[in-house]
Amino acid sequence: MMAPSIKRLKEIESELGTLVHWEKRPWVKIGIQLNAAHDWQGWEQNERSFSAWLADIAEKLELNPSNLWRYYSAIRWYNETLENEHWDGTKLPPAISLSNTTSPENIELLAKLQRVLPDREFKELASKVVFGKVSRSAMREVWEIYRPALQGKTARGRSSSAPRIDVENPTQMDAKWRADFVALIQHEASWTGASDPSLYKVIPAVSFYAEEGPKIEFDAVVLLQRSPKTPLEFHGVKILPPSSRIPKRTAALLGQKCDFIWFVSSDPDMSQGPDSTSGILIVVEAKVQVAQQPQNSSTTPNHSAELARTILQQVF
């Protein structure tokens, strides 16, 4: 007589064989079946591990194993972290009720972002992901902003827990502070004085070597066009570590490479920059305040050419 676990595994394999031939592949149903296979453990009779069984079933179904891992991991994490959570009066659905338009890639990125995002921001983003209200490109954009805060650390192995940001690590916390600010201004242009610009684009972490000069590093560069008839402006942003001040030489050097240079601080007492051309932004409780307006710092007709070339290379 066939053991219940083996019988159930055969049923799961048969169901997977049917699901993968649907016109639109139902990744949620596939992920649920893969989790059932893992939990029933019928694969232990013939395979050395669940990973080996998954690789074998992927070959039989003529699928990429990495896709099956993504479906399995997304449903696993969702079940353990989000299923049936109540946030702001909204109950998140069980995994079986997830829409197929909810991207497994987005859930994968959401799991990574949980390690670094504040609780309120994580819940807001999670709700958008679950109900399909955020694009894959937008999720990747958020992840690229926050990834440096984890210093490239990821889980080692399929069963390892992913490392969270270490609040006792000054380097990580400084990187998180920078990421928090870039995320804060991502879709909010009012600090530039433009309420409804024709173009507003935030490019994080822009750096290049100046011709016959030192390395130029901006924590972000903002491309701004106030109206269709006004020229494109390059706003360089440098985020200061807590309790630090702005060296005058740094302000002058960065100001030569963009139209407007902004320094960002969490110190509410920093009301003036090292010179009259630098702008000062103060961040208090996730609110951006302009302490000093910048002046156009350009000194030559092609002052921002190197910056423009770098952005083109980075974006395209």
UniProtKB/TrEMBL annotation:
Name of the protein described by the UniProt record: Restriction endonuclease
Species this chain originates from: Dongia soli
